[in-house]
Amino acid sequence: MTVTALFWAGAFVAGKIGVQEFPPFSLTFIRFFLATSILFPIMVKLEPNSWKPARRDIPIIVLLGMTGMFGYHVLFFLALKYTTAINTSLISATSPVITTLLACLLVGETLSPKRIVAVSMAFAGVLLTISDGNLNILSNISLRAGDFLMIAASLCKAAYIVASRRFSRNYSPIVLTTYSFLVCVIASAPIMLAEDFLGRLPKITLQGWASVAYMAVFASCIGYLAQQFAIRSIGAAKTTAFENLVPVFTIVLSSVILFEKVTMIKVVSAVVIIAGVYWNSTLSHGTSTEKALIGAKPVT
């Protein structure tokens, strides 16, 4: 899971590189077309008797694909055009606490005083990230458009997790994820053509193609399969805890590869967010929501 967290952190860096050459919908399409092409035969091999979804479940699978894959990743790539990879990773790290809040609103989970404190810590870290320690900047949303786009992306991810809780009992994680990938490919295809992607092809560099290949193979396919292996080997709670390493690795990779500036505020933000998310996850361990959502998280 440490290596997996490193792969997922690399997706923020690769995404920042990719959006310089690909339009957001085209980048989404290519990444998930490659990932689906790899995962689909693996799914059929691992789930020979249960890889075909029931017709009655197709609408919810479409909903999962439109929120957790299409919505999240289009907003993610748009956010990377207007803010740093460090900021996007720190904001994305709050998805577990956003999921907790949605579960309370939609499925009746309760928030204990301790969990309220944990959620508040995580969002305090987001405010620090967005403002760089100067809360006056929040009054001018246009200056931080990318950060707010990433908050919207995190809401899509949380909606995916909450919506998938019912169907995680009926389908394995690889089936849900593969079909969510497929929905994303279908949804992004017509918009990709409208972006005149084919006309841009001659201008795309080897570095651009490498960023897409990295996100499809390492962040999506290998990262996902490694996560499932870890869940079976060390348990869901320990596996989830390793995900808190993602923003830490992103800060290091972004500073080394992208030369993004690492300020003390960013370090403090990371500590506050990770502490809040970790505390929230330990308090929610064993609850009905946590058990229902295991294995239903979208890939970074």
Mean pLDDT: 82
| Alpha-beta classification | mainly alpha
User: pLDDT below 50 for ≥5 consecutive residues: which ranges?
Assistant: 286-299
CA-based gyration radius:
18 Å
Count of helical regions: 14
Order of helices and strands: HHHHHHHHHHHHHH
- Give the CA-based shape: globular
User: Helicity level, as a percent range?
Assistant: over 70%
What proportion strand?
A: under 5%
Task: Report the biggest beta sheet as strand number plus sense, adding barrel if it closes.
Answer: none
Task: Please report the distance between the alpha carbons of the first and last residues.
Answer: 14 Å
Number of strands: 0
Which helices and strands occur, and which strands form pairs?
Layout: H1 2-18, H2 24-46, H3 58-82, H4 85-92, H5 95-107, H6 113-131, H7 145-163, H8 173-194, H9 197-200, H10 206-234, H11 236-242, H12 245-258, H13 264-284, H14 288-293
Helix pairs in contact: 1-4, 1-10, 1-12, 2-3, 2-8, 2-10, 3-7, 3-8, 4-7, 4-12, 5-7, 6-13, 10-11, 12-13
